[in-house]
Amino acid sequence: xxxxxxxxxxxxxxxxxxxxxxxxxxxxxxxxxxxxxxxxxxxxxxxxxxxxxxxxxxxxxxxxxxxxxxxxxxxxxxxxxxxxxxxxxxxxxxxxxxxxxxxxxxxxxxxxxxxxxxxxxxxxxxxxxxxxxxxxxxxxxxxxxxxxxxxxxxxxxxxxxxxxxxxxxxxxxxxxxxxxxxxxxxxxxxxxxxxxxxxxxxxxxxxxxxxxxxxxxxxxxxxxxxxxxxxxxxxxxxxxxxxxxxxxxxxxxxxxxxxxxxxxxxxxxxxxxxxxxxxxxxxxxxxxxxxxxxxxxxxxxxxxxxxxxxxxxxxxxxxxxxxxxxxxxxxxxxxxxxxxxxxxxxxxxxxxxx
Length: 354
Description:
The protein is of the alpha/beta class. It has 10 helices and 13 strands.
């Protein structure tokens, strides 16, 4: 770091993204990407939009917002689109967290939450998950803080029932509850249906996972008109042209082909069940994931050792160093072929260690 950096960032620990090694071709199961390409219509739309890249994009993303409102059954004024859901979450920390409204989230959850809290100067509290990695809703009821809840959670994949989210909303009426639904399309229940009942609810989703668009960087938030107006005020004060023309055009095309998305989600859920069953037969413990990844451990081999041995064989998974989860690994659910490659490598490793 330079000697010019502000001291206010001295304690900042940046988020660590999943590794992207370039030394060989890997079976990449470490960053929760979708194994299927975006729908053909999205590629065509992006290509057409590229012809107008000499012009700024629509700062209101009018067509995209309108299509999202139709798909989710809300008004356009209840939708904001951003450069990935991370931007939506960052804006939420800026808008709804301060000394009077501290943030609260789980100790084992999306790693960007403490980073956003630190960089925005928001005080925050981490509430430990239970021993089985479930989230005790009662610990969030009446906390009078801005709640950030990944649902399903990452890296565990375990969801909170919609009734539990309602309890949190009801008991914190003077604070915003942000439900981060990056993985909701793989078997969990969305809280979008609750936005008209609770003015303090903000639901955040992404195109990166279920819609095969991680490289397009497109996320969105749905909430009351007042909450969305708060977020828009921040967006237009920072980067009003945050959605480029190609991404916006592709986003509309993706939403016009929802069955393509649903078909791929079903395939991933089937591959998840197949992989869990196979790993359990090999003695692994797996959390009940409703995401496009699983969270697993084996008594026969340590989490880091398994990660390293798989990497040697060209298979990438995600390992975390936190003491509570150092024996676990997060494994993205890919195509059936990718999962077969993983399982073959795991069997080889277990046979070698005897």
